Amino acid sequence: MNAAATLLSMLLLLLSVPIFMVFGLGSASVAILGMDLPWSTLIQVSFGSMTKHVLIAVPLFIFTGMVMLRGGAAARLVHFATTLVGHWPGGLGLAMILAMGFFAAFCGSILAAITAVGTIMIPKMVEQGYPKPFVIVLAASAAFLESLIPPSNAAILFSALTDVPVSRTFAAGFVPGIVLLVLLSIVVTWRCRNLRNPEKATAAERLSAFRSAVPGLFTPFIILGGIYAGLLTPSESAAVAGIWAILIGILIYRELTFRALLDALHQTARITAVIFSIIAMATFLSVVLTYTQAPQKLIAFFTEMGGTPMAFWLAVAVICLILGTFVEIVPVFYLTVPIFAALALSLGLDILQLYIVFVAFAGIGMITPPVCVGIYTAAGVAKESPEKAFREVPVFVGVGIIFGMLMIAFPPAATWLPNLLN
């Protein structure tokens, strides 16, 4: 029965059936036909997985980002980043990376970041002579900062799966996010050093851009300040951030219309529906794993084979690279994190380091064909065929692998700040 379910899942993937249906049909067939479990068990567990309080923060952070985009805050953050570094070698590329970092501090959605920042920066960079394929892959790669710099939807999902406090998972991503930002900046500076850049902004222009961006820049302090001061839960801080985004869009920038607000709600609902559909169906697989005791058997096998921490990290890297190439990152989370977490704890490894290493290697799939949803999104913004951007992918895949290996070699990058705040 397990072999038949596996073949069914592979066939559905080849037929381009949505991934949540692949999870649901494959796992449900094993649970119901092969293990004689009732439908009610699957439904109860699935409903419980979607109603965890911490997951409420996911749509709220997405909504905050969508309102920031339509209310004018995103445009001002991009302009501020451009006045800071736009005149440097590869300056517009650096400005895109920096703007992605700013946007990451109040959104947490990779695709929302590509749309928000890319809509503004991609046409500007192409106009200044930056190769369009390079710009597309850079936008997709820089948006990956959303998975690291808090608040991050990836951190929320990881906490929901492992019961690690969201505040610690948020903190774990900050230093690695800065490291990735630096690595991307080095590549852009070298690759675009001879391209034309805007004139250096004057001190008055920078000050004006900063003042205009202050309301948006204040949002992360609301989110993270409320969490780490113990005043708000992650879900409450996300709700407050959403209200703040509406207020500054209407009262300060005066660009958020009722129609734009409805559009933000509509886009939030679409993205949330995709994420929660995957969560609901992936839970079917967790039921099968629980009843078959697959994680416990895998731990015993790994221990008997004399598995070392380095062998474990290499296994995580390879598995995440392969799965991330063919499956989006959310289902990879639900497919592997429960097993990886159990193995990491059995080896005495820090679960926060697992979060960073996992995200580093699984996230490379955002830019590797055939799935590469990051490139498809950025190419849509740039109105370019995504196939033309694939030749720029190897350089950024190399950056991702280097970043992942650094996170394996230096565990304090993930653990230092959470332990300090603790």
Q: pLDDT below 50 for ≥5 consecutive residues: which ranges?
A: none
Number of strands: 0
Q: H/E element string?
A: HHHHHHHHHHHHHHHHHHHHH
- Indicate the radius of gyration in whole angstroms: 21 Å
The outline comes out as globular
Classify the helix fraction into a percent range.
over 70%
Estimate the mean pLDDT confidence.
Answer: 85
What's the tally of helices? 21
* Structure classification: mainly alpha
| Strand portion | under 5%
Distance between the termini: 47 Å
Describe the protein in words.
This protein is an all-alpha fold. Helix content is 77%, strand content 0%. α6 runs antiparallel to α10 (166-191) and α7 crosses α19. It is globular. The model has no long low-confidence stretch (mean pLDDT 85).
Please render the helix and strand layout as text.
Layout: H1 2-14, H2 19-34, H3 39-50, H4 57-71, H5 73-85, H6 91-104, H7 110-127, H8 132-142, H9 153-162, H10 166-191, H11 203-217, H12 219-228, H13 234-252, H14 258-292, H15 294-304, H16 309-326, H17 329-346, H18 351-362, H19 373-382, H20 393-409, H21 412-421
Helix pairs in contact: 1-2, 2-14, 3-14, 4-7, 4-13, 4-14, 5-6, 5-11, 6-7, 6-8, 6-10, 7-8, 7-19, 8-19, 9-10, 9-17, 10-18, 10-20, 10-21, 12-13, 14-17, 15-17, 16-17, 16-18, 17-18, 18-20, 18-21
